[in-house]
Amino acid sequence: MEKTLFAPAERAPEVQVRDLHQMLSGIPLFESLLGSVPDVLLLLNENRQIVFANDAALCLVGARSTSDVLGKRPGEALGCVHASETDGGCGTTEFCQTCGAVRAILAAQRGKPDSRECRISVEESCDAMDLQVSTTPFEYGGKQFTICAVQDISHEKRRRVLERTFFHDLLNTVGGLRGFVELLLESEPEEVPEVAGMVAQISQHLIEEIESQRTLSAAEAGELSVNPDELKAKESLEELAVLYRHHDVAKGKTVTIASDSKNLVFRSDHALLSRVLGNMMKNALEATSAGGNVILGARRDADHVVFWVNNPAFMPREVQLQVFNRSFSTKGPGRGLGTYSIRLLVSRYLGGAADFESSEAEGTTFRVRLPLDGTQETEREALTS
């Protein structure tokens, strides 16, 4: 028996799945009626396997015919990044405990219609999908089924996130900028340099907010161009530390570069890497209490350079399971896209991988692995190490 960390792992044999499909297809007008429905409809057996999919469902998952999805579970048909992590497949991983689709299906199997949101990261494309999954129990021929109606709400969620995150932060920043400009106009001559410095800092923050949203929108649309250049790992860290030591989120906190950090030479896009490391740094500082220390470093791991940022805070396991999802944030509904954009930019554009670990003893460390292309440490690092 296959192991599971959430829903049952057992599956019906292929021949049984095909028999159920034939039985359903034999219902008068069944295929023509469901096929004409514009919404995505799936019928699942008692093992959560697909036994029927309408045309809209086949289009959503990129299948040519029903036979391409028969016997699969919804997450497997959609290409969910977690569906292949265990032998049991969709519904059996620890991550599935937070999946709205699995929970809605299990509720219907207990005889209760349900509707929940589901966030899926697609394995091959790194795309993020937000789905509304509604389930209803259905009985026919002495067999129990679950009707799964799926609505793609990705565009709606993106619009809401844009309004809540971008516009909210933008208006707050502009409001602060206006206040300092008014203060500048009323300042005594000796006060002008200090207030002007604050105006410059807020203006830079405003530019960062706009650039961040523009980069994310272009990344999701596949419109970012990658311009690799020769970079040095420790110098990239020093640049990052200088920038964020004076950032408003670093007030009352310290930023330290690990003493064993290596100045490895590698090729990557400077602007995109800066965006990724900047998000890692900002998230770490936001999670750190006053008086805390954020540590960043770079090391070699075989043929990769690994950048890491550590903060002393611990993330609860429920948060860890969802942290890279586009629509999830510890800051509240519709707030925060930093961790999602880290994985998107690194995986799709920089040819690397992003992960993290969190414990009460060691705090939280986010890591980005990028290919080294066989380069070595610089002469400067060799002389100082």
Polypeptide structure, described:
- It is a single chain.
- By secondary structure, the protein is of the alpha+beta class.
- It has 3 domains: 14-152, Beta-Lactamase (2-Layer Sandwich), CATH 3.30.450.20; 156-220, Helix Hairpins; 228-384, Heat Shock Protein 90, CATH 3.30.565.10.
- The protein is 40% helix and 23% strand.
- It has 12 helices and 12 strands.
- The protein has helices at 14-25, 30-36, 55-61, 74-78, 100-109, 154-186, 192-220, 233-245, 270-287, 317-320, 338-348, 379-384, and strands spanning 40-44, 50-53, 114-121, 128-140, 143-152, 228-232, 254-257, 265-269, 293-301, 304-311, 353-359, 363-371.
- The strands form 3 sheets. Strands 2-1-5-4-3 form a 5-stranded antiparallel β-sheet.
- Strand 1 and strand 2 form a beta hairpin.
- Helix 6 packs antiparallel against helix 7.
- Mean pLDDT is 87; it is low at 374-385.
- Helix and strand pattern: HHEEHHHEEEHHEHEEHEEHHEEH
For this structure, the CATH topology of the largest domain is Heat Shock Protein 90
Q: Number of helical segments?
A: 12
* Total strands: 12
Gyration radius (Cα, Å) is 25 Å
* Overall morphology: elongated
| CATH architecture grouping of the largest domain | 2-Layer Sandwich
Residues in β-strands, percent? 15-25%
* Arithmetic mean of pLDDT: 87
The CATH class of the largest domain, by name, is: Alpha Beta
